[in-house]
Amino acid sequence: MAEHNLLNNRIEMALLDTISDLIRVVNEDNQVVYYNQAMRLALEDQMYHAYDSDDYGFFDFRMTARCLAGGETIQRETYVGDVYYSVKTNPIRGHDGRIIGAVEVYRDKGVEKKLQIELVEKNRSFTEEQVNASAIQRSLLPPKGFMRALFMDYYYRPAELLSGDFFDVMQIDDDHVAFYIADAVGHGFSSSMTTVFISQTMRNMAPELLVDPTVAMLELVHRFRELNLPDTMYFTMFLGVYSLKKRKLTYVNAGHDCPPLIKREGNVRLLMNAGFPVTPLVEASFYECRSEYIQRGDELLLYTDGMTECRSGDGEQFGVDGLKKCFAEVGENPLTDITDRLEKFVQSEIVDDMTCLYLKML
């Protein structure tokens, strides 16, 4: 009785009845002192079945004897009747380290296999959903080529199937073209849904709002806050509006710490501006609007931090200076030259979405 109580103190046996695995506990003499509920039911079932003479079934005590003698943990797989079990036998030690018993756990491998199949199926279904969501996200990107008095090209390389980067170029009216690049936190479903929100909000915004970058950004902030999303969801964005008649670019920056590059006659500089990111935490009341007169042949490069923060195999960061230098040296195919250099520089799996939008004013 004292020995049984000692085993009870070492194992909370009442808890074992809540476990679906079959469990039994033996004392140091290899005598059963406890079966859990699942094992008791299995033993009752086994009593009604006949087995070959060399099939001990649940009455096989050879492994527990070996465990008690040597103190080793024994793992094996075996059939009991028509069921295939994974069996693990562990010694139980007293406070003084002496072996006072053993616990043996039978796990139905058929159930485990079923769970594995279900997990594989769920993963397959989840991947299919991601692939479909990625296709939808890509379908929202603008077509490459000419739009009024500008030429557009882009590089879009998500780190995973879904991206938190997004951009668009939209004709507002006969005189104005709007373009933006945005970077939502993360790379999964939530960030991709944020980009869909941005796309649809900007595409459906009234022209009289969209033509003014400050007004358009404040409207976007207001609508985003109306979603009542968690504080951890936010995005940064650069928004520009180009007047074809005045050849004037006006722009605002909502926390996008990747200032666009403008190239004129081989010289590259940054279009600097600052502002709050778009977040549920703060409703910005103002975004400073700056302007730049554009000449024929000027080139713009909008990008996300995945372009500048990527690293080489030696840990060197490409950086804004690297991108500026690259942009200054490109030839007749600017975006191809830039991305070729970038991919040679990285030569490994990327950890952040890499996106850039190239615009040439005609």
TrEMBL record:
One of its GO terms (molecular function) is phosphatase activity. This is Stage II sporulation protein E. The keyword ATP-binding does not apply. SUPFAM superfamilies: PP2C-like, PYP-like sensor domain (PAS domain). SMART domains: PP2C_SIG (SM00331). The lineage of its organism: Bacteria, Bacillati, Bacillota, Tissierellia, Tissierellales. It comes from the Bacteria. InterPro entries: Bact_Sigma-Reg, PAS-like_dom_sf, PAS_4, PPM-type-like_dom_sf, PPM-type_phosphatase-like_dom. Gene3D superfamilies: PAS domain (3.30.450.20), PPM-type phosphatase domain (3.60.40.10). Residues 147-361 form the PPM-type phosphatase domain. Keywords: Hydrolase. Coiled coil: none annotated.
